[in-house]
Specification:
By secondary structure, the protein is of the alpha+beta class. It has 4 helices and 8 strands. The longest helix is centred in the C-terminal third of the chain and has 23 residues, at 149-171.
Length: 183
């Protein structure tokens, strides 16, 4: 029969072995555990591809149809997919579809065409729009760069006037540019 002290020793030894972290799981003193680093968390949160969605189509009454598309991106990571190959619209190729995708569900773009079917292929998934699936209320799509249309349209005449004015001042031997602006 084993002595009680040897049984206690065996129980304590087993408890020490179970409670001691292994060398692979232990972190060096003063450093975070390997599974608590930003790199480990980033690997754990692998970005999922966005899913293209056909919302609806609107008949423009002139023989063209506007197709509305959105996307859904699960998770918390922003994903970038260049236009072309893995981010393509048929027919059309590059029709203003986004290349940067934010988490959540977002209206993406619209396409006006005479075709009755439009397909958006995105990262191995696709959404096919059919002209028969008409909108009850067309969605609002924030077109990329539309805020630039008005400034760009007014900048041309302004730059032409400014160039003409500076040239006129120089020919006349008049005021310097900063004096004209300061007047």
């Amino acid at each position: 029969m084993a002595r009680p002290s040897s049984q206690i020793f065996a129980a304590v030894a087993a408890l020490i072995v179970v409670a001691t972290p292994t060398a692979a799981a232990a972190a060096p003193p003063g450093k975070p555990h390997p599974t608590h680093t930003k790199a480990a968390k980033a690997k754990a949160a692998v970005a999922q591809p966005p899913l293209p969605v056909f919302d609806c189509a609107a008949d423009n009454g002139d023989g063209t149809t506007e197709f509305f598309f959105s996307y859904s991106l699960p998770g918390e990571a922003t994903v970038s997919i260049k236009v072309g190959g893995a981010n393509d619209v048929d027919p059309g190729g590059n029709v203003g579809q986004p290349a940067l995708f934010q988490p959540g569900t977002h209206s993406a773009f619209s396409v006006v065409t005479r075709h009755s079917v439009v397909r958006w292929r995105l990262a191995g998934h696709s959404a096919e729009g059919n002209a028969d699936n008409l909108c009850t209320t067309p969605p609002i799509v924030a077109e990329a760069g539309s805020w630039l249309v008005l400034p760009a349209a007014t900048a041309g005449p302004l730059l032409i006037w400014f160039g003409w004015h500076v040239r006129r001042q120089r020919r006349a031997g008049g005021a310097a540019i900063d004096e004209v602006i300061g007047d």
